[in-house]
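To: structure desk
From: M.T.
Subject: fold request, one chain
Message: Could you run this one when you get a chance? Sequence is below, nothing fancy, just the single chain.
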Amino acid sequence: MADADLQLVARRIRSFPDFPVPGVLFRDISPVLKDPDSFRASIRLLTNHLKETHGGKIDYIVGLDSRGFLFGPSLAQELGLGCVLIRKRGKLPGPTVSASYTLEYGKAELEIQRDALEPGQKVVVVDDLLATGGTMRAACELLGQLRAEVLECVSLVELTSLKGREKLGAVPVFSLLQYD
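Reply: Done. Structure tokens follow.
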């Protein structure tokens, strides 16, 4: 079942050369979202991985703005957990904490509500894609400010040639599909 599910998801990833700039091969997850069977398969694969790896030790799934919001809540539901959001700066009400990170063309900031988690709570961070690792690293820094424990970072797709997992240090990383 797992191999068939993984093949189903892999067949739905499209590649677009020279997008958004020349020299970049863009991996598009839109067809996974469009096809309920492949989306369900991606959630099932991630859920099974987290159950096998962490059992019942996860307190929350943390979804990253914005495509992590597409996978985070579904994954949390399958695990019987809540989902906490990390958003781009200025999108959350109330007191927040923030962390900045470097983009290809500048800097950006992520925020989480100050009361989103209690110290010591165990979380898994989810996003659609791990590329350079800047967003996931900033998310882990934010979670560290709240004194949450990041058990793992998971993604649907990982671009291995960009070595994003190296930026996450000791935090384990899992991705369903890897591309150079």
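Reply (cont.): The first strand starts at residue 14 and ends at 17. Let me know if you need anything else for the meeting.
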